[in-house]
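Project standup — Tuesday

K.O.: blocked on the structure for the chain from last sprint. Re-posting the sequence here as requested.
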Amino acid sequence: MALTLTLESARKLAVMCQQLGGPRPGSDLAGLRSILRSLRCLQLDPVNAVARSHLLVLWSRAGHYDLTALDTLLWQERWLFEYWAHAASIVLAEDYPIHHLMMRRHAAGDSDHARMVRGWLDSNDALRRHVLDRLRDEGPLPPGAFEDLAAVPWKSTGWTNGRNVERMLDFLWTQGHIMVAARQGRTRHWDLAERWLPDWAQSAQLSEEEAVTQAAEHALRALGVARAADIDNHFTRSRYPGLPAVLSALHHSQRVVPVTVEGGDETWYAHVDALALLERDAWQPHTTLLSPFDNLICDRERTQRLWGFAFRTEMYVPKHKRQYGHYIMPILHEERLIGRLVPRMDRRRGVLEIEGVFPEDTATEASAVRAVTGAIEELATFAGAREIVYGEKVAASWRGAGVG
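H.V.: unblocked you, prediction finished:
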């Protein structure tokens, strides 16, 4: 018999599992490790309207923290590395055996794309050997250090057309042969994975079932409550072969509980580790701003279903067609998504510009407005702003509460 959760409880569980509700983790290395073990991945995105997305995801949970702490985990301790999760991400070295399933199966199968990649790699073995030999002898190296020895150019209709060295590096990365060993700005420096990853991360190899089981448990612990489709769309997106059987086995072993969310008739699932948060009443509400790619809302369909919040980015929408603005940060207040904020950091002037605030409910309570104002001030501090300037699109009802 399935457990029944109210919509409010389901939302609270999701927020707590994301470390956005409950006692705040510390902002030191231990606190960041706690957050990362809950999330399992941080999406990488080049947009820097306020700060890079992966940095904002940590800020939403830890508050102000020393950015060098993340560098320590990445480049010194090598506790983290860059790979594909639900998108290009920072992931945990302890999850390397899970990601290795994708590495060893990349470009396998009979799809047109897989055959094309295999054919291109076979035709350009000289370039492949050149990259690996240079890294073995001299790594880490940036893309510009390699000669383009491709016999057959990479063809596409996008920006990758003819970028043979970059394509080879990406394929060798996806296959697990090389890793990002350093960054200078947006330039990645590469090294051999066998030299870069800690030995303990490479020691285990999981079967397909074991990898899917571990990934599904991580996804469920991070989501709080989820349908099978939500799990498949989270963490190792679309890499859950045999998921129904895995969920059945987890239910049989009492690791996962079927759940009915009030107001719906679909089967959801919750991990027993997540349900323990509800049982011990670990709820402690916070108010914060979320990156557009935050783990809580990166699945837009689930966000709509669970919160009734239709969220879309407008970065690539022509300016005259935007409903809100270029860079939109959802506002999380307690367990609810109560609106959108459009910020822009003017680094030259040291000003955080709030171009607009768009509440879901025009009658937002004054206490929520004060809490959001506090979150904006925290964001300004994190971004290094000396001043906050509010624009004309800040809702009038919020101006009356002291935001303007």
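K.O.: great, moving the ticket to review. The CA atoms of residues 37 and 92 lie 8 Å apart. Residues 3-96+203-279 form one domain.
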